[in-house]
Amino acid sequence: MLKYQLIRGFLPKSYLETAFSAGVLAYAFGTLGDFEQRTGYAFFLFFATWSVYNLLRVVSMLRQMKTMTLSVLVDVIHIPIHIALSAISGLVALILLLFLSFATGTILLIALLFVVTLLYRFKWLVVDQNRVSLSDLPFSKAFLVALTWSALCAAIPLQFDVNYGTQYAAAFFYFLGLAIPFDIRDLHFDAKSRRTFPQIFGVEKAKQLALFFISLGFFLLDYRMSHSIIVLILGLFAHFWLMIQTSPDQNRLWLYRLLDLCPLLYAWYALS
After folding, report:
1. With 90 as the cut, is the pLDDT of residue 89 above it?
2. How many domains does the chain divide into?
3. With 90 as the cut, is the pLDDT of residue 120 above it?
4. HEC states along the chain?
5. Which domain holds residue 229?
6. What is the model's pTM?
7. Residue pLDDT, tens place only, 121-162
């Protein structure tokens, strides 16, 4: 029973699906922008994302150790595995980055974006004599996620070409919408000072805003409607259905794992 609990507790929390979605989406936008290094960059982003998210998982688990429940105990047992995954995938990402012929400015931007992702949860800022993370700042939570993910998955593969400005905006709005369900999940745990979408507008209106941003992300990606209509309908239907299921319920882990995989549908539409 304990062995089953260990496996069931670890697999959904290794962020493999998050890293996979990031890599595939970067490849899709690289294809749109005719980016010659799209395959190498996609693999780099996969391993870099996996490294950073496993490190953030370790930080989260160390904070939870104050309350030793069975689920927390299972998580604590996995800490060495998450550390090993973070270190190995980070090393692979660094090696891949060295083989990519990026300009120094692009490498510095990538580093900055991952630093922002790390600082997103680390309490390093001092506000009113309290230590807070970037995600604790009012109105910042969903917007920071949208900014970093759209930059890493879209702006860099599109090589910052102004001709693809609409596609970058599409990615930003898509990720903004996709971040809102996670704010809804955390509604009962987020401090009111964070001023997230569900805190400001309520759960139902936050869902409507999420659907609006996601739909805008799909339509801006292909405003000339030259991509597959069937893939567009399937993608929107899947997002709409998952959004309806969203609630402030931390136990619906399957729902948020599926939401982590949703960028695959967005990538499919980009490539269709």
Report:
1. yes
2. 1
3. no
4. CHHHHHHHHHHHHCCHHHHHHHHHHHHHHHHHCCCCCHHHHHHHHHHHHHHHHHHHHHHHHHHHCCCCCHHHHHHHHCHHHHHHHHHHHHHHHHHHHHHCCCCHHHHHHHHHHHHHHHHCCCCCEEECCEEECHHHCCCCHHHHHHHHHHHHHHHCCCCCCHHHHHHHHHHHHHHHHHHHHHHHHCCCCCCHHHCCHHHHHCHHHHHHHHHHHHHHHHHHHCCCCCCCHHHHHHHHHHHHHHHHHCCCCCCCHHHHHHHHHCHHHHHHHHHC
5. 2-271
6. 0.90
7. 777 676 676 777 777 788 788 999 999 999 999 999 999 898
